[in-house]
From TrEMBL:
HAMAP family: Malate_dehydrog_2 (MF_01517). Keywords: NAD, Oxidoreductase, Tricarboxylic acid cycle. SUPFAM superfamilies: LDH C-terminal domain-like (SSF56327), NAD(P)-binding Rossmann-fold domains (SSF51735). Substrate binds at R91, R97, N130, R161. It catalyses: (S)-malate + NAD(+) = oxaloacetate + NADH + H(+). The keyword DNA repair does not apply. This is Malate dehydrogenase.
Length: 332
């Protein structure tokens, strides 16, 4: 059986631990596709990745052909078809934004260059490690021979959070909901948007108005509860769980790649802008997307009202500021 080579960086971390077993069990590529796993870690993370590899062996997954562990990016990405870039430098106390961007450019620049040199010609990359959008920009810029639309940053977790919140508020099943969109940066400025969403075929705003006592109450709920709840859900998870989202982030990363490869009629991903919706060309910004299996395409032609426009502009302004900061440091 042919096998797909999948590289996971930061494989010894908590998202890595939640990812590897599901990928090996077939959750990403289905029950008919074998996988070869490549785990990239820094030297301090190798033992943890090795421990995960021992457990992978103990699962005796029928689809898992091999597991290789390395701290060398070229070895990890050699022949990779899919790459999940999870390992990143977290913000530590007293760290300025410029320091954070620079530290991550020092990771995602070299990883992009290694992908450029040794990955398979059909490589697709999802960046999970934060600041994910700008890390994707840096990795793509360091990989001039790989088309920019093969890179994306993960906003699927935000999308799924929005989906679950809307389902709960409308007492619907998540499968009844279509047309949710996450716009902008994977940060607290993101805009989770239900303006084009439907619940069992009816406009989401109409259903919300019915349940909450009018259009105004629905608008207030969206601005005061829904948007902040989704945008700050990561912080809520940390305060309740004591550590950041791991299983849900891993699930979202798998869903992102699975739908990119298998196709979807609608989700969200931070993909390369070519100027759609006024987002400056070259930025990796979240949009509503579809895939026919060949990769994500931005859904075009949606009407944006003033509220949506100003929220999207604010989040995109943050992306521009991150890009400019990285440029000023000479890292882009
Ligand atoms: P952990 O600290 O548990 O794991 C990170 C792992 O990456 C560590 O084992 C570390 O040794 C490794 N690492 C660091 N630098 C590396 C490098 N240069 N090459 C290879 N490995 C390297 O963090 P975890 O909870 O797994 O989160 C990973 C990243 O995901 C963080 O940046 C986090 O902010 C980000 N997240 C992104 C989300 C998204 O939706 N885009 C949601 C979840 C999460 O917050």
């Amino acid at each position: 059986m042919d096998a797909t080579t999948i590289t996971v960086t930061g494989a010894g971390g908590q998202i890595g631990y939640a990812l590897l077993f599901r990928i090996a069990s077939g959750a990403l590529l289905g029950p008919d596709r074998s996988v070869r796993l490549r785990l990239l870690e820094i030297p301090q993370g190798l033992r943890s990745a090795e421990g995960a590899a021992l457990e992978l062996q103990d699962c005796a997954f029928p689809l898992l052909q091999s597991v290789d562990i390395t701290d060398d990016a070229r070895t990890a990405f050699d022949g990779a078809n899919l790459a999940l870039l999870v390992g990143a430098r977290p913000r530590t106390a007293g760290m300025e934004r410029a320091d954070l961007l620079a530290a991550n450019a020092g990771i995602f620049g070299p990883q992009g260059a290694a992908l450029n040199e040794v990955a398979a010609s059909d490589i697709r990359v999802v960046v999970v490690g934060n600041p994910a959008n700008t890390n994707a920009l840096i990795a793509a810029a360091s990989a001039p021979d790989i088309p920019g639309d093969r890179f994306a940053a993960l906003t699927r977790l935000d999308h799924d959070r929005a989906l679950a919140q809307l389902a709960q508020a409308t007492d619907a099943s998540v499968t009844d909901i279509r047309g949710i969109a996450i716009w902008g940066n994977h940060s607290a400025t993101q805009f989770p948007d239900v303006d084009h969403a439907t619940v069992a075929g009816r406009p989401a705003r109409e259903v919300l108005a019915e349940r909450l006592g009018g259009a105004e109450a629905a608008a207030t709920w969206l601005d005061d509860e829904f948007v902040p709840r989704v945008a700050k859900r990561g912080a809520e998870i940390i305060s309740v769980r004591g550590s950041s989202s791991a299983a849900s982030a891993a699930n979202a990363a798998i869903s992102h790649l699975r739908d990119s490869v298998a196709g979807t009629d609608g989700t969200s991903a931070a993909v390369l802008s070519r100027g759609e919706y006024g987002v400056p060309e070259g930025l990796y910004s979240s949009f509503p997307v579809t895939s026919d299996g060949s990769g994500y395409r931005i859904v075009e032609g949606l009407d944006l009202d003033d509220r949506a426009r100003s929220r999207i502009d604010a989040s995109v302004a943050e992306l521009v500021a991150e890009r400019d900061a990285v440029r000023e440091l000479g890292l882009l």
